[in-house]
Specification:
Structural class of chain A: mainly alpha
Mean pLDDT of chain A: 63
Largest sheet of chain B: none
Shape of chain A: globular
Strand order of the largest sheet of chain A: 2-1-3-4-5
Radius of gyration of chain A: 21 Å
Oligomer: heterodimer
Number of strands of chain B: 0
Shape of chain B: globular
Number of strands of chain A: 5
Helix content of chain B: over 70%
Radius of gyration of chain B: 23 Å
Chain lengths: 355, 477
């Protein structure tokens, strides 16, 4: 009887799927693969951006998911074009879960191909966590999934164990369903439009602030992250930041260390004294390299404080927060550095010095 | 709502479960499927439901009136009403602006001021597909080859059934209405093959079409002035496979969704790049559109009856219509003309061979030589289809005529990943041609639990391989 067969097939099918999902979750968690999850697939986009696009870059952002979600290139491009009366190309190359090693890797790749006038590096405390590394593993993984040929041509295939990381993809089903209650079409459509705009789309006036305010998430996960010490003040981080700063100086790129405004509700979650330690560490790094450290979270001159509704969880911005941040950053900060950098050599116009 | 979106991941299983619960109550089941279909469509723009309802209502009334009418004049008038309403809506939304802009340009070129206002209408998703479906319904009743649907509910479900609503396959009423009346139930094999088709379609879309598009065809067609011969060839090859993966992937997912719900939708692609001649490729590519064109345009024009000149005229008209169906633009007109010419040439060549008494050879060398030539003949028309205007097409031509990229300092790279996937897509094509049935049989034989586990593994892999969500190309048609 067809219906009986249907009733037996579907539960058995779902059972098999559920077992596979649970197994994949267990394997992924045990192997610590969280930072290679699907939501971090911007790695692929960034890699493609470097490899296959012939585009100018005036401003490039690099950081983690905070920057990825908060710096909206299309909004900034529109504001900058209005203020400077010339087209300005902004790239957001941030990668969720980025580590200092990833930062250096992408910075060097970026400077080999393009020389932006201004390079904005995220300098918020809970980011760049020194415990989250394994750059080699991450890169091998992304290269492998970016295509077998890319792997064969760019990196020796040394560690077959990274193949196992493919199972992390199975997390997707659970994650997607788990996140559905907070899923909102506006958010997706918004980022779809703005993140894609630099590839040929156009930003329209009046599209800012789609008006969505998601509830501030539970934040247990973010609290866990923020408690991790040493909050990006390690010796290793220092060396990597030094190399990024030296690369910028060598290429004549204006480096900006930007402490992105954080949600006030997150602040009590930091270990006592750790935020202050991070701030002092970052200030000294900026002083050492003679680059500006813009602590937009605290500096009253910038008046950049955001409200809770500008965040979708304790760390990441909502679309509305991203629009506000991007607009104000483009209006109040970038023009002065673009003007200063523009007075120098003609960087950013695609006439790079290559490899 | 895209088939490859998270929302659909929630929507479709819900529909399947509720559909299962309502199977013993056919009217409720049909009503639910119809409501789900309208909900699916409304995710793009609920306003355009009015167009579907108009088309459904008019053709339902006309179909019944045609059945009752006895006089030939009255029947012709009724059919005329259906054609006028359906083609009127299609023409207004899809072609009005194109004709006005073309007329303005023509007037300006001869010294007049062309200032006729365009309407700037948004093209409703799927209008070309469901318009052709409803037209086939009234035409078949007019030809007395079809009885009207039993109820408005059945007919509305035929027009709006969500798997095929926005991008085909173009289902005929005589294929779908008997299934609706039968209240079909999916067998175990239907479920297994439904899942197989969805996964296979997703692979074509997410891996083949999207990645090749991102790596090869978009970088080239967005900036043809930056590339040399090799990049141009990679872009042209890439777009052929991107278009195939995109559209065949969507069709296959639609067929899979329909099958899980118990409905059989017609095949839309049959390994088109395995075609050996230009006539065969049109029996393998977008089969439902081309068979529609054959039955409602080519044959009524006289088909191949009435001598060679008339046959070639009919071929040209049909292909011109096919080109314009794809979009309002001079490139689509030109694409239709080129296809018409190549098909006519193929037909002439075959006629010439037959007259000379040449026997059709089926040895492997001949078969692959013909496939190779046919594929490259097909490629010739691809830049016309892809480029928005003649200036861009000329730029593609210039790229093909220079050996190196003009950007000597920093020439763009041809993505190795994209080239690799083109090769893999071709290999998959060959496997599908020769071993597709075996693969499907092997899948069906697997236990349901294994299918579930493999489905999750496959989805996980796809989600990793996907670059970014790209809209289906054929939604614009």
């Amino acid at each position: 009887m067809p219906s009986a067969r249907a009733w037996t097939f579907l539960p058995r099918f779902v059972l098999g799927a559920a077992v596979a999902m649970l197994a994949a979750n267990a394997v992924a968690d045990a192997a610590g693969l969280r930072w290679l999850a699907v939501k971090n697939q911007e790695h692929l986009q960034v890699v493609n951006h470097f490899r296959y696009r012939v585009e100018r870059a005036d401003v490039a952002f690099f950081g983690t998911s905070v920057t990825r979600n908060s710096a909206v290139p299309a909004v900034m491009e529109r504001e900058l074009e209005r203020i400077l009366d010339r087209p300005v190309r902004v790239w957001n190359l941030a990668v969720p879960g980025a580590t200092p090693e990833i930062g250096l890797y992408y910075t060097e790749r970026l400077f080999r191909q393009r020389r932006p006038r201004v390079f904005v590096l995220e300098a918020a405390p809970f980011l760049w966590n020194a415990e989250r590394k394994d750059q080699e593993g991450a890169e091998t993984y992304w290269r492998w999934f970016a295509g077998p040929l890319a792997t064969l041509t760019e990196a020796p295939f040394r560690r077959p164990r990274y193949l196992l990381r493919g199972v992390q993809g199975m997390n997707w089903g659970f994650e997607a369903l788990w996140n559905l209650p907070t899923y909102h079409a506006h958010r997706e459509a918004y980022f779809e439009r703005y993140q894609r705009a630099p590839r040929g789309g156009r930003y329209e006036r009046g599209d800012v602030d789609p008006g969505w305010q998601g509830p501030l998430g539970d934040g247990a996960f973010q609290r866990a992250i923020s408690r991790v010490d040493p909050l990006g003040t390690s010796e290793e981080w220092k060396l990597l930041l030094d190399r990024i700063a030296e690369s910028c100086a060598e290429k004549g790129v204006q480096l900006l260390l930007v402490g992105i405004p954080m949600c006030e509700q997150l602040m009590p979650e930091f270990e006592p004294g750790s935020y202050e330690r991070h701030r002092a560490w970052m200030s000294s790094a900026a002083q050492r390299h003679g680059v500006p450290y813009l602590n937009l979270h605290e500096d009253p001159a910038w008046e950049f404080r955001l409200e809770d509704f500008h965040f979708r969880d304790l760390i990441h911005y909502s679309p509305r927060g991203a629009a506000v941040f991007s607009r104000r950053f483009a209006r109040e900060i970038l023009p002065r550095y673009l003007d200063a950098a523009g007075a120098g050599a003609g960087a950013g116009d695609g006439a790079e010095d290559g490899d | 709502m895209l088939f490859n979106s998270i929302v659909f991941l929630l929507f479709f299983p819900t529909v399947v479960v509720v559909d299962l619960l309502l199977r013993s109550r056919p009217p409720w089941r049909k009503a639910f499927l119809l409501a789900a279909s309208y909900f699916f469509y409304a995710q793009w723009d609920p306003r355009f439901l009015l167009l579907i309802w108009t088309s459904t209502g008019v053709d339902w009334v006309v179909g019944n009136a045609l059945q009752r009418a006895t006089g030939e004049t009255r029947r012709k008038r009724l059919l005329g009403i259906s054609l006028l309403v359906n083609l009127g809506l299609l023409g207004t939304f899809k072609y009005y602006d194109f004709f006005v802009e073309s007329a303005n340009a023509l007037l300006e070129s001869i010294g007049f001021q062309g200032n006729v206002e365009t309407l700037r209408l948004i093209l409703p998703v799927g209008i070309s597909f469901y318009t052709f479906q409803t037209l086939s319904y009234t035409i078949e009743i007019y030809r007395r080859k079809l009885e009207p649907a039993d109820s408005l509910l059945d007919f509305a479900l035929f027009v709006g059934f969500f798997p095929q609503l926005v991008a085909g396959p173009i289902v005929r009423a005589k294929q779908f209405l008997p299934q609706v009346a039968r209240n079909p139930r999916a067998s175990r094999e239907d479920y297994a093959l439904g899942v197989y088709n969805i996964l296979s379609g997703l692979f074509k879309k997410v891996v083949i079409a999207d990645i090749i598009g991102t790596d090869l065809s978009e970088p080239f067609y967005d900036h043809p002035e930056q590339w040399g011969f090799a990049g141009a060839m990679a872009g042209i090859y890439g777009f052929a496979f991107q278009l195939y993966g995109d559209f065949a992937g969507y069709s296959q997912m639609a067929i899979g969704c329909g099958r899980i719900l118990g409905f059989r939708l017609p095949q839309n692609f049959d390994n088109p790049f395995m075609a050996r001649n230009n006539l065969e490729i049109w029996r393998r590519w977008h089969i439902t559109l081309l068979s529609w064109m054959r039955d409602y345009i080519y044959i009524p024009l006289g088909g191949s009856r009435g001598g060679s000149p008339r046959t070639y005229r009919n071929i040209m008209i049909t292909n011109l219509f096919s080109g314009v169906w794809h979009g309002a633009g001079i490139n689509f007109v030109l694409w239709g003309v080129v296809n018409g010419l190549t098909i006519s040439c193929s037909r002439m060549y075959q006629g010439w061979r037959e007259r000379r008494g040449r026997v059709r050879r089926d040895d492997a060398f001949t078969v692959w030589r013909q496939r190779f030539l046919m594929f490259h003949l097909w490629l010739v028309a691809m830049p016309i289809f892809r480029t928005p205007d003649l200036a861009a097409l000329a730029e593609v031509g210039r790229a093909l005529t220079r050996w190196h990229s003009p950007h000597v300092d920093a020439p763009p790279e041809i993505a190795a990943r994209g080239v690799f996937l083109v090769v893999m897509a071709f290999v998959a094509h060959v496997i599908s041609e020769y071993r597709g049935a075996d693969v499907r049989r092997a899948w069906v034989r697997l236990p349901a639990e294994a299918q579930g586990a493999l489905t999750i593994c496959f989805l996980g892999l796809l989600s990793h391989l996907s670059t970014e969500r790209t809209p289906f190309i054929y939604f614009q048609f």
